[in-house]
Amino acid sequence: MSRASASYIIDGGEPGAARLAVLGRTLAASSESFLKRTGLRPGVRVLDVGCGSGELTGWMADLVGPAEVVGVDVDLTVLSIARERWADHPGAPRFVLADASSSIPAALGRFDVVYARFLLSHQTDPLGVLRNLRDLCLPGGIVAVEDVDITAMFCDPPSAAYDRSTELYCQAAVGRGADPRLGPRLAGLFHAAGLEQIEAGAVHPSFRAGEGKLMAALTLRSIRAAVLAGDLIDEDAFDDILDEVERLTDDPTTVLGLPRIHQVLGRAAA
Q1: Rg (CA), the chain
Q2: What predicted TM-score, i.e. pTM, was given to this entire model?
């Protein structure tokens, strides 16, 4: 994910890495099930674009070894965490500093599978970035993308504060040229990028308890600076909303729905 980009509203660095670790554990099962549909197996070379702290990158390396898996990101802090985490692992992924919104080094070569999770919705030109991903594929290779529709978040029983937190995320992202509602458009972007044999689906995680229920508050806390910089709300009002979302997180009778995640894959022309 392009944390150096002006369009990216979520804090990076060590707090961002801690949030990504929770996110990775929360969504591991659904992302792994989706990625298995790409045909991951020994010998398949994989690129993980916006790899963050490398949770899925390492999992893919275990599946495809001895083939190489490369993870790229623009946040040096999370890349350092990923490198340290996998340094002593047999067949460890290679982690490279690069930005998918501009260019990824040609020296990395091309790949059988190119994967990105929660990347395109942070870009000002998601179609252009998707075309970059397509061009990184070998002929007949697969591009696999997961991305969100933030507006699908929900709280049951309903909560005005939770709804307002979703609005603030959307307003901050749109104000920087990103598209937090990109998920439903993803299959259409694949078609516009010239990808073939497109498959599309979606999952909608929600939680009454457990670590996944932390994600809404973690994300809201991580966009505080961007929301305040956009003059969308004053500090006290923001903190009141955050306090209420954290209270909902701790309430065992409340269900919190995260963004709906659209999962799309397509094949590059042979």
Answers
A1: 18
A2: 0.95
